[in-house]
Every structure is written in structure tokens, then in C-alpha cells.
Amino acid sequence: MGKSAEIAINLTSETLILALVSYVFLTSETLRAFALLYPELLLFGVLVFDFIVGKYIGLRLIEYFRFRRLTVS
User: Is the pTM of this model over 0.70?
Assistant: First the structure.
């Protein structure tokens, strides 16, 4: 029972931290203006960030194509 409660607390805290960080970014006037003026740069930045994070946690871009049949509903 202790292990599952610990996992639940960790997941909840990670979710709350991500929600707070997202809120700060989404309420920023500078980021809103940047997203409206340069949407292609924002998308490219997200792609680069996803690629870096994917390498860090072991996901590879090719795996998305390799397992696409499993991800399609």
C-alpha cells in the first residue's frame, strides 16, 4: 500500500508542477505575441524540445513511426 500511495503522490505533484509552469507560460503576454507573430518558430521549438526529451527518456522519433499501428485508435 505504501508504494502505490507514493507513486500517486509523485504523479500528482508532477502534474501540479506541470500545470503551474504551463499556466505561467500561457499567461505571458510576450509568449502570446511571439506565438502570433512567429508560429513556425514556436512549432520548431516544440519539435526540438520533444526530440531532446525523447532522447533523454529513451524514446526515438523512429519509434513513433515503428509503433504507429498501436497508437492509432
Answer: no
